[in-house]
Amino acid sequence: MKLISLNKKIQNCTICPRLSLYIREIAKNKVKRFQDQSYWGKPLSGFGDINAKLLIVGLAPAAHGGNRTGRMFTGDSSGDWLAKALYKNGFSSKPTSEAKNDGLVLNNVYITAAIRCAPPQNKPTREEIQNCFDYLQQEFKILKNVTVILCLGKIAYDTTCKLVQIKPEKFGHNKLFEHDRIKILTSYHPSKQNTQTGRLTWTQWFEVFQKAKYMTS
């Protein structure tokens, strides 16, 4: 299966020396609250429903979230926000995303990211973004039923525009851009930097998923 082969390739990737070193160091020098856990410490593939109409593109795995658990948006506050919104709109089997083998099943949605390794300060370089772009292209070719792409943050939006070969417009929350058969929906990323400052409220976040549900049902 093409997706299984691609995912293995992603997980074994060492193209970006800075990122490869960083995620291994994080996995070795754990934070105190996760001292007793084994970290994944490798690049992350996407996950979800291969027949999905909705594709969610994030920025990158979190250092102590996805990089620890081995699954994107899993084991951190951003994952909590995403899992709850997906569940309440019928996209997932449960409202939490805590561990790779927690039984979470996604329905009509596939989750991926612009970058597959956790970058220092959540700031990948242009070269690192470019290095990862081919993986997103390959995923997009395999996910043949996608009609809506939800971009979480500006880097995800710019990368998605490159993916569908359109010029990026001004990024903002809950904007909709249409290109051929693909609709691009945007949201601020549910990072603590946005959710704890009030830049992104739960109501604003939830509205995006209600719109995505309507467009993919």
Rg value: 16 Å
Record the strand order, biggest sheet: 1-3-2-4-6-5
CATH architecture: 3-Layer(aba) Sandwich
Helical percentage: 25-40%
The rough form would be described as: globular
Compressed to H and E, one letter per element, the order equals HHEEHHEHEHEEHH
CATH class category: Alpha Beta
Largest sheet: 6 strands, mixed
Structural classification: alpha/beta
Instruction: Give the overall average pLDDT.
Output: 97
What is the CATH homologous superfamily assignment? Uracil-DNA glycosylase-like domain
Low-confidence stretches: none
Number of separate domains? 1
**Span between termini:** 27 Å
Number of DSSP strand runs: 6
Instruction: Please report the number of helical segments.
Output: 8
What percentage of amino acids are in beta strands? 5-15%
Task: Write a structural description.
The protein is an alpha/beta fold and 217 residues long. It has a single domain (2-33, 45-216), classed as Uracil-DNA glycosylase-like domain (Uracil-DNA Glycosylase, subunit E, 3-Layer(aba) Sandwich). Helix content is 39%, strand content 12%. The chain has 8 helices and 6 strands, in the order H-H-E-E-H-H-E-H-E-H-E-E-H-H. Strands 1-3-2-4-6-5 form a 6-stranded mixed β-sheet, sandwiched between helices. A hairpin with a 2-residue loop joins strand 5 and strand 6. The longest helix has 17 residues, at 126-142. The two termini are 27 Å apart.
